[in-house]
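To: structure desk
From: M.T.
Subject: fold request, one chain
Message: Could you run this one when you get a chance? Sequence is below, nothing fancy, just the single chain.
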Amino acid sequence: MPVNAFYAQSGGVTSVINASAAGVIETARRHADRIGTVYAGRNGILGALAEDLIDTGLESAEAIAALRTTPAGAFGSCRYKLKSLEKNRREYERLIEVFKAHGIGYFFYNGGGDSADTCFKVSQLSQSMGYALQAIHVPKTIDNDLPLTDCCPGFGSVAKYVAVSTLEASLDVRSMAATSTKVFVLEVMGRHAGWIAAAGGLAADHGIPVVILFPEIPFDQPAFLARVDALVKHHGYCTVVVSEGAHHPDGSFLAEQGTKDAFGHAQLGGAAPVVAQMVKEALGYKFHWAVADYLQRSARHIASATDARQAYELGQHAVELALEGKNSVMPTIERTSDSPYAYRIGSAPLDQVANAEKFMPRDYISADGYGISDKGRAYLLPLIQGEDYPSYRDGLPVYVTLQNHPVAKKLPPFEITK
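Reply: Done. Structure tokens follow.
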């Protein structure tokens, strides 16, 4: 008899996470003899805890296919990290109860490092309880910081957006520099890893003077100001790309607000105005700043074709791994060549992925710490290649909104710990 599957999206969404969803659902449909209905969790893992499931089987093939070019999370996501098994076993047991009630034997969790941890723990608990469940993590994070994979779906499109935005905004500044703005500061995401900020360095290939502030390089204010001053005096202007995770030598973030997010991480935001004001006070240059924020991760209209393809393939391979009998693993990208770019799909055990971070290698960063090296450029360029435009109507992209039909509940209500 076919076994049902559960799929959920977790954490900050991306412009291509729905492509992974399409990969999971379409592949499952091609194996209807072994996989019954794919249920999605409404608002991520919260949907499983609340038994708030969505029947994706009621969506048309055309609607599921349209997910490939639709940004954000079609089923809703959440920032909710399950505590350890020791501290909150009841939540994990609740997941198994819901899975039992709905005949679910496959668990596909689409997210980053915290999601890999949840997926791993659910796999462990199901085994200890004697419940047959195959838990497969589908990688997603614009931060590109998951280990054991060359890159993460979502990153290539953000890198493309940041590279293009850095180039275009810099040309604007260059036009105005003689009498107006001389320094433009762009803040991008990246709490501990500077992969996204590094993408701004690709604009330097077009003659743009760019200074990058990486989380991997402690911020040196005198050296930074000297670098900006030198570039402005030579070129008439410069652009600064600052990661939200840029920090002082003592570890404190330039943009730390003193608050925590749902995962217990320091709440960041505001590095750009801090840096811009620093430049103004020390050098007197007129400035403008911007925070890419949600724009960088939602921009499906300029997504990388490479990224969109890989996002779909990893969703597809997640299902294939499950059908092969694999458990507690994550499909990965294994690069085999930079030029021409080539890769294959592999897999990694979740106990080596969960709660681990991959940082920018030092040799991907220029010797002065303010740009990317040739190795960094060789890594980044293949990931932003190609355009995969959505359809347009009346000048705007056409994105799908699913029906998201609810599944009838079978269990008593469950109180979710906040």
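Reply (cont.): The chain has two domains: 3-141+302-355+388-397, 155-299+367-384. Let me know if you need anything else for the meeting.
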